[in-house]
Amino acid sequence: MPSAEPTPASVDESDLVPPTRNDEVARSGSELIGGPLGRRALLGTSWWNPVRVIALVAIGVFALGLVQKAPCYDGAWFFGASSQYTHACYSDIPHLYQGRGFADGLVPYFDKLPGDMQYLEYPVLTGVFMEVAAWLTPGSGSIQDQEQWYWMVNAGMLMACAAVIVVCVSRTHARRPWDGLLVALAPAFALTATINWDLLAVALTASAMLMWARGRSLAFGVLLGLATAAKLYPVFLLGPLFVLCWRAGKWRDFGKALGGAVVSWLVVNLPVMFFAFDGWSKFYTFSQERGVDFGSFWLIMAQNSSDPLSTETVNTFATLLMLLACAGIAALTLTAPRRPRFAQLAFLIVAAFILTNKVYSPQYVLWLVPLAVLARPKWRDFLIWQACEVAYFLGIWMYLAYTTSGNAHKGLPTDGYHWAIGLHLMGTAYLCAMVLRDILMPERDVVRLAGDDDPSGGVLDRAEDVFVLGAAAHRPRHAAQFDGPQVEWGSEPGTTDRSL
After folding, report:
1. Where is this region: Disordered (predicted)?
2. Can you tell me whether residue 474 is helix, strand or coil?
């Protein structure tokens, strides 16, 4: 029988993998707080265990992100169209409090909105989240006061989601809890956390990944279905999971996951679908009808063309590109010399959707941060990618400042914004390339260097392959028979592998 992923309670302290012992960047950065962990450091004998420390760090960094929005909270949201961009503190949340009828007590999906939007354009579970925040918002005072309160209430609820995310990431790879620190300290995570409501779906997805790592297939499916009821992207994780289960012959577990996802999604969506179909379908029709928008390579093409492609044509090409990416990931999964880790493929499939989609809002980086940490917890590559995302975060607001400042032209012109988009695309593609290299050369995978197989794989961890293609079909079929090089984690820090 394949061994199950150990729970944190069953992992001995000596088995933990601190990044300061095998990551040059993490070790150098640790000098700011006293240097790398020593060989005799006590990691789990007090209240200050890694998960609690990381959760507190995440809350602290999240709070810094709130401080960064202070110029808008003090008036830029209300009294200046361009100042909220020049201060890079824009958020959808206060604007949609009135713009989507919450200030007037309208019921999402059931009550029509004034203007062209007609209905709330968000998935049902996100709409519930928004409505709960509206219930908790004081209805007294000016509309500006209410919008400020609405943002603060949402910020508190989103902070809870952020804490859930870092705890789940820290516990998914039982031997690598400190990897969660990458999520907690990610600058793009803090900067974009309160732009929109994406953290709800990210928290549910991270919880689902933890459940799969623990071998709880049905719970994974239920949580993934709920995540898909909050945002579309989590459903893509079922694709690589299907191919992984095909290679390992884990059909029963995939069936539980799929069944749980379908049932939980239906439980949330069916009541609204039945009683308010027009409102429920707005999210899906809006996604199809929406034109080429910020952050995508499609926008660069459109703004540099005298005859840009129609929305329908872009939808078709974007779908074809995504299908090609899915086919490529499936082929990679079945032909790789060693079965890829679930987190690696989860990151690649979501990154493919982001790279091919016709819009990239700055908060979409939140979708990738936990998956990137689980896929390749290498500080250097993660920080390179984050630097590109921070550059894009600043670029889009400076571009909007330029377009809304009239003849003053304060901000970044169109060509400069295209360079910011290019940085985002190259940064994401770079991290995808590093993950692909780890899959094709598993001996370079930082997670597998310690002798692990697939810590986030649950029933896939060290499972025997039953279906492979190409050269992989002629290699030893049990993961344990071709583990990568072992690293003695109690050795001196100087033994770090610098080739990663």
Report:
1. 1-29
2. helix
- What residue numbers bound the domain in which 205 lies? 8-35+45-489
**Chain centroid, CA 400 distance in Å:** 25
Alpha-carbon span 389 to 201, nearest angstrom: 20
For 201-250, the pLDDT digits (tens) are 999 999 999 999 999 999 999 999 999 999 999 999 999 999 999 999 99
| Residue 378 structure tokens | 């290498």
How buried is residue 43: exposed, middle or buried, by Cβ count under 10 Å (0-12/13-18/19+)? middle
Among all chains, which residue has been given the structure tokens 């899906």? 284
Phi/psi class of residue 34: alpha, beta or left (left: φ > 0; alpha: ψ in -120 to 50)?
Answer: left
**Does residue 394 fall inside a structural domain?**
yes
In a domain, 288, yes or no: yes
pLDDT digits (tens, 9 = 90+) for 84-133: 999 999 999 999 999 999 999 999 999 998 877 789 999 999 999 999 99
Cβ-based neighbours of 499, under 8 Å, separated by 6 or more:
444
Burial of 302 (0-12, 13-18, 19+ CB in 10 A): middle
Beta bridge partners of 478: 464
**Cα–Cα distance measured from residue 492 to residue 489, given in angstroms and rounded to the nearest whole number:** 8
